[in-house]
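>> Question from a student workshop board

For tomorrow's exercise we were told to take the sequence and the ligand below, predict the bound structure, and bring the output to class. My setup keeps failing. Could a helper post the expected result so I can at least see what it should look like? The ligand is 2-acetamido-2-deoxy-beta-D-glucopyranose.
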Amino acid sequence: MFPTLALVSLSFLAIAYGQQVGTLTAETHPKLSVSQCTAGGSCTTVQRSVVLDSNWRWLHDVGGSTNCYTGNTWDDSLCPDPTTCAANCALDGADYSGTYGITTSGNALSLKFVTQGPYSTNIGSRVYLLSEDDSTYEMFNLKNQEFTFDVDMSALPCGLNGALYFVEMDKDGGSGRFPTNKAGSKYGTGYCDTQCPHDIKFINGEANVLDWAGSSNDPNAGTGHYGTCCNEMDIWEANSMGAAVTPHVCTVQGQTRCEGTDCGDGDERYDGICDKDGCDFNSWRMGDQTFLGPGKTVDTSSKFTVVTQFITADNTTSGDLSEIRRLYVQNGKVIANSKTQIAGMDAYDSITDDFCNAQKTTFGDTNTFEQMGGLATMGDAFETGMVLVMSIWDDHEAKMLWLDSDYPTDADASAPGVSRGPCPTTSGDPTDVESQSPGATVIFSNIKTGPIGSTFTS
Ligand SMILES: *[C@@H]1O[C@H](CO)[C@@H](O)[C@H](O)[C@H]1NC(C)=O
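>> Workshop helper replied:
Here is what the output should look like for this input. Compare the format with yours to find the bug.
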């Protein structure tokens, strides 16, 4: 994930849970079935559910309906300091479809970009997969395993991101380590990623009210003193014009609150505790502009299957992660990943430490990914356990140009690594995409995990 998500806050009439729990709306997690496969290729369907991230929820005073947070501003009397705010404020239940445009049916999850609710307009969303207990996160270790899903992103234009990824959150959302967090994973608390986002309203059981500043271009978001960091495996960051698979690592394991230089903000991007750039494989950026898009080899105008294999050095679940392989299945045909076609690089078609080193050298990029331990560190995070995230978002910092256009915009677009997709550098402004593509939607379905080769057939 590159910059932070666009958030919306709601000015409702009713309930609030800060890091307490509010009860004005019942919290009913949408059901989602997923499959677990065995080496022979037989798969069992299990019932799971998804939970909305706490940042999107109505936050109000405990027992009342006064907003603790409105637009991008905290209420001074309810939230004079981090701990008082956490005690005074409650997170409420979510109307998943009516307010947030989140619906499930069988094994499919649909996330709508703009939802006009009764009291508010919601932009984007982020949900986590819960385990069979319907209240703690499902933890994944994908070493020597494969993760597969179908995606329909035909209705996702330039500037949007339908993302499926893993982050190293606490199974209980942090309520065990930080007892002032009473809401926990049942209310989607404890988010972290390698961008060490500062826009999270509660971190480590405290409100992020210190130094809080509303965003200059997002009426629903702001940033506080602290960020929240952790390892992140981006399986899929994509729209109909392009896609990237990107491991990112940190020098710390598990969700970690940061401040100052450790957060790696602005000019200190490469001085923080996490690798913000990651080691990305984006077929267009790696030199094949014919591979993925509308009408291309992987045709984004209809649904297809995305398979990601996590190979270890000794082919066991305890070995070091050594390779991340990608393949696609569409219309019954298995499609091998595109090969790198960049002068000075071998024809890599998967992510290995060799690939990352070669790519960073050839593109002249800073190699914090390998400095922080590369794929082995990513594998260590899976051993700790990672949480599945699915989201739809637009980008108030960089217009998603790092995914689908030329980026940085002041670089020579013909220099290797600068062109990442066909979208114009003028595309992706949140004001434009929110007004022009309110119906944009991503549908993730048919999630499967299992041993290498068990989750798909040709
Ligand atoms: C792991 O499996 C691959 C593919 O089956 C094989 O080529 C490789 O030699 C194996 N590696 C080890 C260390 O057993």
